[in-house]
Amino acid sequence: MIVVFFGPPGSGKGTQAQRVAARVGLPHVATGEILRREAATGSELGREVQPLMDRGALVPDDLVVRVIESRLRAPDARRGVLLDGFPRTLAQAAALDAMLRRRSRRVDTVVSLRVPDDVLRQRMRVRAAAEGRGDDTPETFEKRLEVYRLETAPVLDHYRATGARIADIDGVGTIDEVTARVITAFAPADTEQRAS
């Protein structure tokens, strides 16, 4: 099962993917976390991506695709993964689709978290205070929202067109409430209808 967690910055993709991964027994693959870890260690990759992340810009597609392809070859990814923060562009989505086709796989489900902008901004302020992330300044966050709308939002339409299952989830509420909604996306269709 290949599941993409999708939504604007601050929508809770990472939190929800991590929680759901533990429940369904699939690894949570967070590109942002992988790239921030590389930046913190000062690796060659980290030195390449740090300035981009500081500006709120997207990391080049070829670089992110290489990171993901390497991660999908790991033994724990054999049964599937929950992707968080990838794909973020149509080019990345096409690269992921091609990569998966070579393994006779495809994106099965896209969990799309819907959260209003004012809630996203409030979450960013809380996260910036709690975690001190350099990419959570108000200016950088606004840039990330703009990049999301221009470059990332079209990815959802791409997966609608491929026939992937789209689970539109209300991302507002307590973490537990949102997790309960997301878990229904993994249930058979008849269970989902009873839960809605």
Walk me through this protein's architecture:
This protein has 196 residues and is α/β, with parallel strands linked by helices. The protein has one domain: 3-Layer(aba) Sandwich (Rossmann fold), CATH 3.40.50. Helices cover 59% and strands 12% of the residues. Strands 2-3-1-4-5 form a five-stranded parallel sheet, with helices on both faces.
Can you tag this structure with a few keywords?
alpha/beta, Rossmann fold, disordered C terminus, globular, single chain, 196 residues
Mean model confidence by pLDDT: 87
Low-confidence stretches: 189-196
Strand order of the largest sheet: 2-3-1-4-5
CATH architecture label name: 3-Layer(aba) Sandwich
Helicity, as a percent range: 55-70%
* Ends apart, CA distance between termini: 23 Å
Total domain modules: 1
Write the element-wise H/E pattern from the N-terminal end onward: EHEHHHEHEHHEHH
Tally of extended strands? 5
- The CATH superfamily is P-loop containing nucleotide triphosphate hydrolases
Please state roughly what percent of the residues sit in beta strands, choosing from under 5%, 5-15%, 15-25%, 25-35%, 35-45% or over 45%. 5-15%
- What's the helix count? 9
CATH structural class: Alpha Beta
* Radius of gyration over C-alpha positions, nearest whole angstrom: 16 Å
The dominant shape is globular
Structural class: alpha/beta
